[in-house]
Amino acid sequence: MGDKRDYYEVLEISKGASDSDIKKSFRSLARKYHPDKNPNNPDAENKFKEIQEAYAILSDPQERNKYDTYGHNRPGGSPFGPGGFQGVNINIDDLFGGGFESIFGQIFGGSRSNRRNRGGDLLIRHTVPFQAILSGWDDELEIEALNSCPKCDGRGSKNPDGTKSCPSCNGRGRVQRVERVGPFAQQVVSDCPSCKGNGVIVSNPCNSCKGEGRSHQSKKIKFSVPPGIANGNRIKITGQGEAARGNGGDNGNLYIEIEVEEHPWFERDESDILMALPINYADLLLGTTIEIPHIDDKILKIKVPTMSKPGDTITIQGRGLPHMRSSRGRGSVTVLLKLEIPNKISKTLKNKLVKLRDDIKISSSTLEESITEEANKRRGK
Ligand SMILES: [Zn+2]
Ligand SMILES: [Zn+2]
What we know:
- By secondary structure, the protein is of the alpha+beta class.
- Among the domains are: 1-113, Helix Hairpins; 267-378, Urease metallochaperone UreE, N-terminal domain (HSP40/DNAj peptide-binding domain, Sandwich), CATH 2.60.260.20.
- It contains 9 helices and 15 strands.
- The protein has helices spanning 7-10, 19-33, 42-58, 61-70, 99-112, 131-135, 281-286, 347-360, 367-378, and strands at residues 122-128, 137-148, 163-165, 174-181, 184-191, 200-202, 214-225, 234-237, 254-260, 267-269, 272-279, 288-293, 299-304, 313-316, 333-339.
- Residues 109-115 have low confidence and may be disordered.
- The site of one zinc ion (ZN) has 8 residues, from loops.
């Protein structure tokens, strides 16, 4: 850790940079070095961690101030504890929205002050049609979540002045006590038993929520799925999670994990889509044009050249799926040609084929010659 770089240098900003400069620079550097964009690249991984550490410090006014005063050698050691900075897990989605801010907000927040009472996050899975990848999708769903009780406005008491700050914990909801374990004295923090961690004492409790201040209610959530979405992507809806315990505090967030329905014939490879096309011997040899309905509601024309072979692929540019979060147009459709062999054959066709068999034969070479030629092709000779 001897040659630790200057945090301002890491974020490529000046000493006087404003909060929004810091955020902007962090966002763009983090996107560049995010592990999702740099798989198996330890250099990028280190850089990503370095940027995170610099941002954690410089985005926090108190920590930034200490850094400006002492640099990396502040009294009391690393602000991240004896192990130093461990890195945080940031979803690349959060770099586009503001999701990363709350992650960093918690790094020092927990130890300095009483953490703000915050409701739980919710995760639900939701399936969208394949079409959603192409054009995006507006959707709505109904969820049941712990919400602030409407009968008592979340107070928990029937009367407006029926709540008071808990005297045992001074409204913090947590109590500290010292426990002795052998020779060691250890500070233990736990939920306050008098107010069950709520920080308030409720008199004349509300019938609807039994003094809890929140109750299960169903609500409708409208959301948009962006084009290019993939299985497992999560859409974050800020503030639509559970209400916080006790009065006040922030709602948790709702995460909608998207599952994309299977297409009847396409497989997806990021923005490209692949399909197999069964085709008969005559069409392979003579070439043909096949037209099928496509996901963009326009006909997809597949031009099979003459003398095609089973296993050949035809690529149609620009008719695949959009690239996630970029306007670089659409990916491609790749069509794999497969020789279609019928399960049954009519007598007439059989008779015709028997007559054809000799004509189809590749006359000029012997059997051994054609087998050898095939082997050479396979071996790349
Ligand atoms: Zn209490
Ligand atoms: Zn109530």
